[in-house]
Amino acid sequence: MEGMRLKSLFLYCLLVLFFLSSPVPAHAKRVLTLNECRTLALDNNKQMQVSRVKQSIAENQRKSARTKYLPRVSAIGAYEYTSRGISILNKDQKELLDNLGEVFTSAIGREVGKLPLDPAKVKELSEMAAPYVAAAQGTIDHLGHSLNEALESNNHNTFAGTITVTQPIYMGGALKTMNRIADIKEELAANTLEARRQATLYDIDNVYWQVVSLRHKQNLAESYLDLVKKLDHDVEKTTEVGLTTRSDNLSVKVRVNEAEMALAKVIDALSLTKMLLCQLCGLPVDEPIELADESTDEIAPPVAIPSAVSIDNRPELRLLQNAIDLTHQEVNLFKAENRPQVSFIGGYAVTNPNAFNGFQHRFGGFWHLGLQVRVPIWNWGDVKYKIEAAKQTTTVANLELEDAREKIELQVRQNRFRVSEANKNLALARSSIANAEENLRMAKRGFEEGVITPTTIMEAQSAWLMAHTQKIDAEIELQLSHTDLLKALGILK
Fold first, then answer.
1. What backbone torsions phi and psi does residue 42 show, to the nearest 5 degrees?
2. Residue 182: CATH number of its domain
């Protein structure tokens, strides 16, 4: 039993030592496919984020334009202090009202004096009526004074407020045109976003395939370096036995140095290009990454594009069409300026003081309804000139669209030709590889048999290197020309 425990402990210690001694990479490489690189680039591209924000802005502007059909409700409040009040009566009228009883009694006295009565009798009657006349005079003076005060406005402090509802009925077609312009601007923002998206994918595809190309060329450079090093080792042995000369040995060593320099350049270029790829993907530039197509011996050819695909998918053409549509709507907007505009207005207003029941120092209000009509009569041809300028702008936009369409059609033809040439070059490169492989194999055998000089085998190695390089270039050129064609057609997804 004790022996089994010692054996188990010994095995446990061996396992611990094994795991402790196993190398653990400090930074594991992140493997990325082309689609993953595209997704990262689209998510982290600042211009894409700007385009998304602009699209949101255009959407909100379109929603704002829709609200112009709806009634507007507004409230206004005001206060005003004036140094003088409004007076309906002049000074003479005010004085007359304050002494209205005296004027009234004087008038009665004059009329009584005109009566055909005995003076003694008149005097007696006057003495009897005197108390009543005095009372009536005081009452009438009080009434006149009260009326005078009632007619005083005393409007030094004025308060006013109103709630108004305005509903456009007919604005000469301006509202419809403004909504159409908002729709076009939203389409324009969407097309701008699509153009930016395709440009981002185009950039990331180019850098991705450059990294793949450099990685394959690094592998090729390493294989070529191994070949020339093996040749250098063999030539050194044959030089020692006198089968080759010292000059042959030095020539091979120069070729080794050239291969090492070429490998170093490829490694540096690969490192810099990966930094650029990380920057486009929004990753730290020093993050170790590996691409899925780096480790493949053969790069899968892209799917062929049907020849019937239209260039109308190109976002740049849609942007130019949006510009034409905007100029058409500008013409309609200018025409609306020469048409009548009708609006309904209603609301409720209050004032303090108010004169609805005499002058009262409290709030009083009233409802009001009405129509507002604006009819343009004369503007010295301003709208006419604007319309002519907008029509000329439309002409320019149409010419730019036609020019862009012709250039894009030429671009599509050129890229289709490039794809066809890349396929031919790839087929020739693969055939050249088979010949170069066989040539190198025969050269190695001839060198081993002593019937071929080191110069001949170095030429065979150079031909082998060139054939493989041409194959890598043809594969990458096929991918890049295919990407160019997708972008030219506007279907880069």
1. -65, -35
2. 1.20.1600.10
Cα–Cα nearest to 335, from 179, 176, 172: 172
Element (H, E) at 372: strand 364-374
Is residue 75 in some structural domain?
no
Cα gap 129→296, rounded to integer Å:
135
Residues 264 and 123 in one domain: no
Helix ranges, 67-118 (H): 91-98, 100-113
Residues listed for the chain:
493
List, for residues 132-176, the tens digit of each pLDDT value: 666 776 777 677 677 766 666 667 788 999 999 999 999 989 999
CA distance 376 to 378: 6
CA distance 427 to 421: 10
Same domain, 197 and 104: no
Give the span between the Cα atoms of 333 and 176, in whole angstroms: 9
* Type of residue numbered 209: W
> 283 and 142 in one domain?
no
Instruction: Decide if 366 is inside a domain.
Output: no
Cα-based distances in Å from 276 to 11, 36, 200, 339: 49, 16, 13, 58
pLDDT tens profile 286-333: 899 999 998 888 888 888 888 888 888 899 999 999 999 999 999 999
Residue 209 located in a structural domain:
yes
Q: What's the gap between Cα 389 and its chain centre? A: 28
For the chain, percent of residues with pLDDT exceeding 70: 82
Please report which residue ranges of 284-376 form alpha helices under DSSP H.
315-336
E strand or H helix at 337: none
Helix, strand or coil, per DSSP, at residue 84? coil
CA 178 to chain centre: 20
Structure tokens at 207: 């850098």
Shared domain check, 220 and 106: no
Distances 164 to 199, 349, 366 between C-alpha atoms, Å: 51, 8, 12
Which stretch of 81-95, 217-231, 472-486 has the lowest confidence by average pLDDT?
81-95
Instruction: Give the tens place of pLDDT for each residue, 193-249.
Output: 999 999 999 999 999 999 999 999 999 999 999 998 988 888 888 777 777 778 888
Cα 132 to chain centroid distance, Å, stands at 93
Residues 450 and 311 in one domain: yes
Q: Tokens 């990685």 sit at which residue?
A: 215
Encode pLDDT of 75-84 as tens digits. 999 988 887 7
Is 102 inside a domain boundary? yes
The residues facing 341 across adjacent strands are 374
Domain of residue 415 covers: 25-70+171-339+376-489
